[in-house]
Amino acid sequence: MKYFFTLLLSISTLNSFSQTMKINLWPEGSIPKSIQTNIQEQVESTDIVRISKVQVPQLEVYIPNKKGATGQAVIICPGGGYARLAYDWEGTDIAKLFNAHGIAAFVLKYRLPDSLSSSTPDQVPLLDAKQAIQIVRTRAAEWNINPDKIGIMGFSAGGHLAATLSTHFDKSTRPDFSILIYPVISMDKNIAHMGSRNNLIGTHPTEEMIKLYSNELQITTQTPPTFLLHATDDNAVPVENSLNYYLGLKKNGVPAEMHIFPSGGHGFALALGKGALEKWPELLLNWMKELK
To answer: How far is Cα 178 from Cα 150, in angstroms, rounded to an integer?
Structure first.
């Protein structure tokens, strides 16, 4: 209970010592793989702020007070089955937590795979994630960030995007670490979250596409150190997604820490009020302190 109130206090007092802003990922008129349409971004604010039909991808920037900054930064990819983004629940709320601990955070409003607004729908989330990490590295000095301490984090389908960047990067876009929270990892229909799979690669994907986006098969020795969190009773994204990714990391000698809780289901975000599970941010922050 003490941890619960400490966490709430940290988040509620954030605005007194941090800076926030929103920046577009791409210059106007030059968003790659984009098709001009009349489609408008949609924002639904009920219990959670959900964003769909993203047309102009952005980074929402959360910079902590310089005095307490650790130099670390995390780009956060909210989940939503590649159909929408749980923008505050798995985005801005998480960014505020990081800021309270001196860590810069960036919430990625990435484009979703929509065949009407993109020429290659499956590629646009990854293009946006790569651009995001390049922007943060380029502006690291301005934001008091160590350019060698920039990680990617994702929840659910956002976890798939984070894992995809962690296994499909090029020289300038490799994350320094990866945080995967109840992530979609595989496109194997036996363990895949079929909604995410269908939205990303379609209902009749080729075997090549299935393999390409099954990130447990794409791990190499260069995949960044990874923190994994999942609940055994997750009925939306089977825990085997995290287990198989962890085994792939182990096989390739990549440092990894995994926490599997017996209960929690799917989409618990900060897990406030969920007993032992609500301490997972503390486990993550301790892991981040130990990163080389």
So the answer is: 9
Per-residue model confidence (pLDDT) at position 20: 82
Mean pLDDT of the chain: 94
- Give the helix/strand (H/E) hosting 128: helix 124-138
pTM over 0.70: yes
- C-alpha distances (whole Å) from 53 to each of 39, 65, 109, 115, 200 are 7, 34, 11, 11, 14
Q: How many CB atoms lie under 10 A from the CB of residue 115?
A: 11
> SS3 helix, strand, coil % of the chain, rounded to 5?
35, 20, 45
- Please give the domain boundaries of the chain with CATH numbers for all domains: 2-32+39-290 (3.40.50.1820)
User: Which pairs count as long-range contacts for 22-26, CB under 8 Å and 24+ apart, including other chains?
Assistant: 22/58, 22/59, 22/60, 22/61, 23/58, 23/59, 23/61, 23/135, 24/56, 24/57, 24/58, 25/57, 25/58, 25/59, 25/128, 25/131, 25/132, 25/135, 26/57, 26/131
* Residues 5-64: tens digit of each pLDDT: 445 445 544 444 466 899 999 998 899 999 989 999 999 998 999 999 999 999 999 999
Tens of pLDDT along 77-129? 999 999 999 999 999 999 999 999 999 999 999 999 988 899 999 999 999 99
**What single-letter DSSP state applies at residue 273?**
T
Q: How far apart are CA 171 and CA 7, in angstroms?
A: 37
Please give the full DSSP string across 42-58, using - where no structure is assigned. Answer: EEEESSSEEEES--S-E
